[in-house]
Automatic annotation (TrEMBL):
<dbReference type="InterPro" id="IPR050086">
    <property type="entry name" value="MetN_ABC_transporter-like"/>
</dbReference>
<comment type="similarity">
    <text>Belongs to the ABC transporter superfamily.</text>
</comment>
<protein>
    <submittedName>
        <fullName>Phosphonate ABC transporter ATP-binding protein</fullName>
    </submittedName>
</protein>
<keyword id="KW-0813">Transport</keyword>
<keyword id="KW-0472">Membrane</keyword>
<keyword id="KW-0067">ATP-binding</keyword>
<dbReference type="InterPro" id="IPR027417">
    <property type="entry name" value="P-loop_NTPase"/>
</dbReference>
<dbReference type="InterPro" id="IPR017871">
    <property type="entry name" value="ABC_transporter-like_CS"/>
</dbReference>
<keyword id="KW-1003">Cell membrane</keyword>
<dbReference type="GO" id="GO:0005524">
    <property type="term" value="F:ATP binding"/>
</dbReference>
<dbReference type="InterPro" id="IPR003593">
    <property type="entry name" value="AAA+_ATPase"/>
</dbReference>
<dbReference type="Pfam" id="PF00005">
    <property type="entry name" value="ABC_tran"/>
</dbReference>
<dbReference type="InterPro" id="IPR012693">
    <property type="entry name" value="ABC_transpr_PhnC"/>
</dbReference>
<keyword id="KW-1278">Translocase</keyword>
<keyword id="KW-0547">Nucleotide-binding</keyword>
<dbReference type="InterPro" id="IPR003439">
    <property type="entry name" value="ABC_transporter-like_ATP-bd"/>
</dbReference>
<feature type="domain" description="ABC transporter">
    <location>
        <begin position="2"/>
        <end position="246"/>
    </location>
</feature>
Amino acid sequence: MLTISGLVKKYGAGDPVLKNLDLEVEGEQILSVIGSSGAGKSTLLRCINRLVEPTSGTITLNGTDYTRLGKRDLRVARRRIGMVFQSFNLVDRLTVMENIQCGRLGYISTWAALTRRYPKEDIRRAFDLMERVGIAHYADKRADELSGGERQRVGVIRALMQDPEILLADEPTASLDPKTSEQIMMLLRDLASELKLPVIINIHNVNEAKEFSDRIVGMRYGRIIFDDLPTALTEDAMHEIYAGIPLADRQAEGAAA
Ligand SMILES: Nc1ncnc2c1ncn2[C@@H]1O[C@H](COP(=O)(O)OP(=O)(O)OP(=O)(O)O)[C@@H](O)[C@H]1O
């Protein structure tokens, strides 16, 4: 289980961009985080594995408080959190298999990684996953010879090779055409269920969020103002997330007036 408590993030001296967030994510589920640009979605995701350093608060994944880890322990603990990126973050000149095996860095020796002597079981698992997502025939192809959708499949498999306890996806479909985007969302949903993984997705496409998620969290101005089933995301809720003033602020303003 992932438990985020009182999470605050300030960049420099400005106002916090995450304001005392609490969030619990349990079991296999697809949780989509929506909200307008600058709401803090990406910062939230990146605080979870400390790609962005939280200012205060705690982030606990299955008993480990990530905010307390020193550098070395953090490096090890990060393996438990898979991450998928909008821009795929593949190494272009490496093959698909080599990119996928990057997910095992930290589990195998530097020597084995440098000489591409991957353990047999890692190769087998990579092929199983590549077959699962339909790219096994590209194992020896360079990453920069693939289409966007194929590259994102590689990104997903690389993250899964870490044997993560949770998967974070930061706008995983934003660089893809609508059809490919749907395929990747479907893939994330199916893999989450097959591997019993919780997946948190930062996503702009609300229709996709509604179609493929079990739960939607809506952010505005660094706060969570909606946390419910996709069916509860009504026009009013959308207005509040994207245009209106959040209820809590409205009430606070009303009380102050
Ligand atoms: N490295 C940084 N330094 C300073 N401010 C930052 C930094 N990264 C993000 N911010 C600011 O924090 C706020 C939240 O940004 P964040 O990227 O988390 O929002 P977002 O909801 O993911 O937006 P988008 O959907 O446009 O990606 C924004 O005002 C942004 O300008």
